[in-house]
Specification:
The complex is a heterodimer of chains A (about 180) and B (about 575).
Chain A lengths: L17 H27 L8 E3 L2 H15 E5 L5 E4 L6 E7 L2 E3 L1 E5 L4 E7 L4 E6 L3 E5 L3 E7 L5 E7 L11 E7 L4
Parallel strand pairs in A: 3-6, 4-7, 6-12
Antiparallel strand pairs in A: 1-10, 2-3, 4-5, 7-10, 8-9, 8-11, 11-12
Chain B lengths: L5 E4 L6 E3 H32 L8 H34 L8 H24 L16 H30 L9 H31 L8 H35 L6 H14 L16 H8 L1 H27 L8 H4 L6 H24 L13 H29 L7 H27 L22 H34 L11 E2 L16 H5 L10 H25 L7
Antiparallel strand pairs in B: 1-2, 1-3
Classes of the chains: A alpha+beta (about 180), B mainly alpha (about 575).
Chain lengths: ~180, ~575
């Protein structure tokens, strides 16, 4: 039976057939193009993850967050929940806590301005998912991840959690406001 | 202890089965199908909950069912079946006795115990941690213990496989180099060994952590090492199902690879480059540099992707050559049109090949590209991708092989032959649609592993676009179709094996093979076929039709790749 027929002892010296040879060359070139696209985008593209991250203690991160909220809080939302909404100045360091099961605080940013957003979890893994932009980033406990983002269009965005984090995972959602820059 | 050297020759296939090996293959196959049955029942709960119009399960049960579904399908069904394939590819294809059958049984029972213990942990209700069980979310200790026992059993089976290769060589049961299918199985087994090693490195400390002996498990370390286990285990599947594709091509068409060199080298590339690929699960994680991510995810210039693209050409290419030799030489595609589309082994294999390549392969490269991952990570695009690779790819290929194994291994006729004819289409096309629509919904941001995309009870709900709801609904409907297809497979398999008509062979007996006698026919004529076959092709190619199909594949790949970059360029600048 063909299935159990053996190969020549020295199978690596067989001649190459043309169909296969041409395909291998094409596939290899395509793989090289895909490889070079990633460094290319780091140089010329706008959407790249930073390599900036620090080990941090949850209590220190929470303290920095509270400090920022005290400085820049503009209002509260969510009725009894009293979720603070913070409007930090452009270019500043902005802290956001992920925890079971909320994002804290809520941010109000200006379009066209850049912000250094620090993300960290207080407990388990969470997934920062900005909708409808569909930017998705893993959030770890103990690792402070710094991203420089520049919101483009004004509007109300949502941040949902897309890393499974227990029974109320589906209730972990918040808002992010973008207002017109330069007002 | 006397060595059992009893063999039987299968009258319909001519294959030689070693008595203990045959029994082990049967039991592993049965354990696989039982796992598939459990996982399939759980799939109903998953599908009918994520289909929001139905939404039958409460959240706690949904996460529990989803965890058990993942484990039974991805781990227990597939690995039990792979062990059967390993024994088939070593003992049967090499006409050799299986090394140390007793150890093989010990491995089998360890795997069974491990699977039962792990399922017990999940059904307790305090281990709904998903297949990935990311620390610091903790499960009951028996959750990790079950997985560890299962992995040790699988490792024992791998070494029985390697031992059988040694026995076959020492007892000279074959000449020259092992058959290609065996070569692919060796690839799978080698990958399995370092996969299980990575699993041990992370699961053993996590188990100790769950019983309080280790204080802290770092979440990034966990994800990094866990994926060296979790992703590589999918590469065992890829190697195994590519080997099964070659096997079915050989069984149905008598097809031989166009060149052994190309196919074998492609398998070798898997061994060298797949392990690094696990880094693509960490592209959106902090604490790892872009250099690390790019080097590892490009699998050192995508050499593993290259290997899959090569297999994608050589498997249908081998079929085309075999068909052209039989006289189907008209045009580019007569060989394909005249293929036995009513033979479930073939149709399953071919849908598996196309689905794995077009849906699973292309989407996998998207997710594995550092920047593109940002718009895909943890969305339901990911389950869409792996239902194309591991379900349409691996599971369907294994289903195709089952239709061959039931008569030769279990000596029963296939029950419900008409249903069997349709089964690969119902299951394969249903599951392909699931994959496609989940990917579509993922592109619109729908999260994976999520009970309620309507965010009920949340003060700040997000309203997904209508298209996302529609696609999740269609994925639900087609998911039900796929479950029906899976049910057909289970019905046919179980009925055939236990109640099917026996294939009686007059004068059947196991024959004792003496040490050197197991070798059957002398080696086949040297494979100098390539030059002779050229006459059947066109344009100087022996497989022009396959080449055209490959170009269609490449075109879709390139287009979709750049569409994703275009989409990425529209989201918020980020650095």
């Amino acid at each position: 039976m063909t299935i159990s027929s053996t190969a020549e002892k020295v199978w690596w010296k067989e001649p190459l057939e043309r169909t296969e040879l041409i395909w291998i060359v094409i596939a290899l070139i395509w793989c090289l193009i895909m490889f070079f696209m990633m460094p290319y985008w780091h140089i010329y593209g706008q959407q790249n993850l930073a390599n900036e991250a620090y080990r941090a203690k949850p209590e220190d991160f929470a303290a920095k967050t509270e400090e920022m909220i005290a400085k820049y809080k503009v209002r509260e939302e969510g009725g009894d929940l009293k979720v603070p909404v913070v409007r930090p100045p452009a270019g500043s360091d902005v802290y956001m806590i992920a925890r079971l099961w909320s994002w804290y605080p809520m941010l109000e940013l200006e379009s066209g301005k850049s912000y250094r957003i620090h993300l960290m979890s207080m407990d388990w893994l969470h997934g920062f998912s900005l909708q409808p932009e569909n930017i998705n980033i893993q959030v770890h406990p103990g690792y402070e991840h710094v991203l420089t983002v520049t919101p483009t269009n004004p509007g109300t965005y949502a941040i949902i959690c897309n890393e499974y984090c227990g029974i109320n995972h589906h209730t972990m959602a918040s808002r992010l406001y973008v207002v017109k820059g330069g007002q | 202890m006397a060595v059992n050297r009893m063999f039987r020759t299968c009258p319909s296939s001519g294959l030689m089965f070693h008595e203990p090996a045959e029994k082990l293959m049967r039991w592993n196959a049965v354990a696989a199908v039982v796992s598939l049955l459990i996982g399939g029942i759980l799939a109903i709960g998953v599908v009918l909950t994520r289909w929001q119009a139905v939404h039958i399960l409460p959240p706690d049960m949904f996460y529990q069912v989803l965890t058990a579904h993942g484990l039974n399908m991805l781990v227990f069904w597939i690995i039990f079946f792979e062990i059967a394939v390993l024994y088939f590819a070593s003992s049967t294809l090499l006409k050799s006795r299986l090394a140390t059958p007793r150890l093989a049984w010990a491995g089998f029972w360890l795997m069974v115990i491990g699977a039962v213990v792990n399922n017990y942990a999940v059904f307790r209700g305090d281990s709904s941690v998903m297949f990935t069980s990311y620390a610091p979310m903790g499960a009951h200790p028996t959750f990790y213990l079950g997985l560890i026992l299962f992995a040790v059993g699988a490792l024992v089976a791998c070494f029985v496989f390697f031992g059988t290769l040694v026995v076959a060589r020492a007892e000279r049961t074959y000449r020259n180099s092992v058959p290609l299918v065996t070569f692919g199985a060796i690839t799978a087994a080698i990958i399995a060994v370092f996969t299980i090693a990575a699993g041990a490195i992370i699961l053993i400390p996590t188990f100790l952590w769950s019983v309080g002996l280790v204080e802290h498990i770092d979440s990034l370390m966990y994800r990094t090492i866990w994926w060296a286990f979790g992703h590589s285990s999918q590469q065992i599947n890829v190697s195994a199902h590519v080997a099964v594709w070659y096997a079915i091509a050989a069984i149905v068409f008598g097809a031989k690879p166009m060149s052994e060199k190309v196919s074998r080298t492609a398998f070798l590339l898997y061994i060298f480059f797949l392990q690094l690929a696990s880094a693509h699960h960490l592209l959106a994680d902090p604490g790892l540099t872009s250099n690390w991510k790019i080097f590892n995810t490009s699998y050192a210039m995508y050499l593993a992707v290259l290997a899959s693209m090569v297999h994608g050409l050589t498997v249908p290419g081998a079929i085309e050559v075999a068909q052209r030799k039989k006289g189907y030489v008209n045009g580019l595609f007569e060989w394909l049109r005249k293929a036995p589309w009513g033979n479930p082994s073939f149709s399953a294999m071919f849908i598996s090949l196309i689905g794995f390549g077009f849906l699973g392969g292309i989407s996998g490269v998207m997710m594995g590209t550092e920047q593109l991952n940002l718009i895909i990570h943890n969305t339901i695009y990911v389950p869409g991708h792996f239902h194309a690779t591991v379900v349409v790819g691996t599971t369907l290929a294994f289903m195709g092989l089952t239709y061959f194994l039931i008569p030769v291994l279990f000596r029963r006729e296939i029950a419900f032959p008409t249903m069997a004819k349709w089964q690969p289409y119902v299951f394969g096309l249903g599951m392909s649609a699931v994959s496609l629509f989940l990917m579509g919904a993922g592109t619109l941001g729908v999260p994976r592993r999520h009970w309620d995309m309507g965010f009920a009870g949340n003060p700040f709900p997000y309203e997904f676009p209508g298209a996302a709801w529609l696609m999740m609904g269609i994925a639900g409907v087609t998911g039900v179709v796929a479950i029906v297809g899976g049910g057909m497979y289970l019905l046919i398999t179980v009925w055939s094996v236990f109640l099917g008509r026996k294939i009686v062979t007059p004068g059947f007996q196991h024959v004792r093979a003496k040490d050197n006698v197991a070798k059957a026919a002398p080696a086949v004529a040297p494979a100098g076929g390539a030059a002779v076959l050229t006459g059947h092709g066109s344009g100087g190619m022996i497989a022009p039709g396959t080449f055209v199909l490959a170009l269609v594949f490449l075109t879709s790949f390139v287009l979709y790749y750049f569409i994703n970059w275009k989409y990425l360029s529209t989201v918020w600048p980020l650095k």
